[in-house]
Specification:
By secondary structure, the protein is of the alpha+beta class. It folds into three domains: 14-46, no CATH class; 49-385, no CATH class; 388-493, Immunoglobulin-like (Sandwich). The protein is built from 17 helices and 19 strands. The strands form six sheets. Strands 11, 12, 13, 15 and 17 form a five-stranded antiparallel β-sheet that branches. It has a four-stranded antiparallel β-sheet with strand order 16-14-18-19, with no helix packed on it. A three-stranded antiparallel β-sheet has the order 1-2-3, with no helix packed on it. Strand 12 and strand 13 form a beta hairpin. The longest helix is centred in the middle third of the chain and has 26 residues, at 172-197.
């Protein structure tokens, strides 16, 4: 027998086992069992629906205050007028962007870049100081999920009623409640999509088109697309957006430190947890302040147990603080078992004064200085912005030519963009070469928020410059306010 045949006989061969799926029990993850054995392997983890419990308290009032503020701004801003136009309008078709008194063109992209830089720095600073409170109070996902949960409660009842309704068989009552909820969700979603498109198409015109069933294909697409996104994210995905889809939840750890304000559970005070009567002495039972009511889990919109410590799923909404304080009041225990604090604050037992002092640490100062510098640069640039723009192009049909008297002539086209909402007069001049003369009209009028292509002809006396290309400058001055814009070009002298 050869060596290869010997190895084939003596080497144990792997045993292949056929994996077949088995039926999934309702509410349990789908599993597979190996044929001929008892080994189970989970193919995926089933998503359990979260039924957030209603809660009242100081932080719940703040959350609803932010809901009202953000939605009044979002839904109301497109309806405001500034002069004879919509106050905030991003007119992509005409490539003009109106923000109250400010009129911007695509050439003003630098301001958008500056705004994005400031937004990023603000996020870094706010996260370093206050953690994910943006997520808990003002993030659109949180705000709309809060509204959709309220509509769900309005039609289906509180948490226990919704649990019973979902567990019950289909009936006329269940169908009516479910249908009512879906109708409210869809109506709010479509109104949200309509409002979103109203920032890009004048909302009054859009409303008239909608009533007359004459909306364009792009407006129709974006109304339904944004409405569907709102419906799906706030109605069904909810905490999954915060836990799995939002990138902020993933890179927040890079901005957190042990002095960042987070929702904390005082383990030293709360453990060991356990149920007891209101009259019982927890010290005699060797128990902490936590009565193990699990209400902090029931009110959490992402379904986590804050008693397990800091978790990336926590959006810092403080619902668990409100409900825990309510339980502490009923048990006649001091409030603050769950509270806003920091990891260092809980570990070292700091009070509010010490927590405030730790806000002003080096990284916060660095973020603050950079943010202030970037904000100041943006506002100074906007304040000193010349309200018109000029682009210079040469006449490609005739680069340079000799005309009567031996003068050398170059023809240009100046694109003057009036970034104000009133008609403006402009004066054009050219400098850079001795004897350079403007032989075309030097005064032009450009309408409000309009752009105009202006033909400009320059002539140079013979012998005033050597053959070749010479740098020149066009100066365009607004007659009304004497502001000027200078643009560089070249004057060609033929050989």
């Amino acid at each position: 027998m050869s060596r290869r045949e010997t190895e084939a006989v003596t080497t144990p061969q792997p045993t292949l086992r056929k994996v077949i799926p088995i039926a999934r029990v309702a509410g349990e993850p789908l599993q597979a069992v190996a044929a001929g054995g008892g080994d189970f392997c989970s193919l995926y983890q089933a998503q359990t629906k979260i039924y957030p419990r209603s809660v009242s308290g100081l932080f719940a009032k703040w959350r609803w205050a932010m809901v009202f503020i953000t939605q009044i701004v979002f839904y109301g801003l497109p309806w405001l007028e500034w002069g004879q136009r919509q106050a905030v309008l991003f007119d992509l078709e005409s490539r003009r962007f109106y923000i109250f008194a400010l009129l911007l063109y695509p050439q003003d992209f630098i301001y958008l870049a500056g705004l994005l830089v400031i937004s990023a720095l603000s996020l870094f600073l706010f996260t370093a100081v206050a953690g994910r409170q943006w997520c808990g109070y003002a993030c659109p996902q949180t705000v709309y999920a809060e509204i959709f949960i309220w509509l769900e409660k309005l039609t289906e009842g509180d948490r226990s009623a919704r649990l019973r309704l979902d567990a019950s068989p289909m009936s006329l009552n269940k169908f009516g409640r479910k249908a009512g909820k879906q109708l409210l969700w869809l109506s709010l979603s479509l109104w949200t999509g309509f409002t979103f498109v109203g920032y890009f198409t004048p909302i009054r015109e859009l409303g008239a088109s909608f009533i007359a069933a004459g909306m364009g294909p792009w407006e129709t697409f974006w109304v339904f697309f944004y409405g569907l996104a709102t419906y799906g994210n706030a109605g069904y995905l909810r905490e999954q957006v915060c836990k799995y889809m939002c990138p902020y939840a993933r890179f927040q750890s890079a901005m957190f430190d042990k002095d960042t304000l987070i929702v904390t559970y005082d383990e030293a005070r709360g453990e060991p947890h356990g149920s007891r009567s209101k009259k019982a002495d927890p010290a005699a039972l060797h128990l902490g302040s936590c009565v193990d009511c699990t209400l902090c889990v029931q009110v959490c919109p992402t379904g986590i147990d804050i008693r397990k410590g800091l978790q990336y799923e926590c959006i810092s909404c403080a619902a668990c603080i409100d409900v825990c304080d309510t339980v502490m009041d009923k048990m006649n225990y001091p409030r603050g078992l769950i509270r806003y604090s920091t990891q260092n604050g809980v570990a070292q037992g700091w009070g509010k004064a010490q927590l405030v002092r730790r806000i002003f640490r080096p990284r916060v100062w660095i973020y603050s200085v950079i943010l202030l510098a970037a904000s100041a640069a943006l506002f100074i640039s906007l304040a000193g912005r010349v309200p018109f723009k000029v682009d210079v192009t040469r006449d490609r049909t005739s680069l340079a030519r000799v005309v009567g008297g031996g003068n050398i002539e170059n023809v240009y086209r100046l694109q003057i963009m009036n970034a104000t909402e009133s008609s403006q007069n402009y004066r054009i001049a050219a400098t850079g070469l001795p004897g350079l003369a403007l032989v075309s009209a030097d005064h032009w009028t450009v309408g409000a928020a309009q752009a105009r292509a202006v033909p400009v002809t320059l002539q140079l006396p013979p012998g005033a410059a050597s053959a070749g290309s010479h740098e020149i400058h066009f100066e365009v001055e607004a007659v009304n306010d004497a502001r000027r814009v200078a643009e560089k070009s070249v004057f060609l002298v033929p050989r």
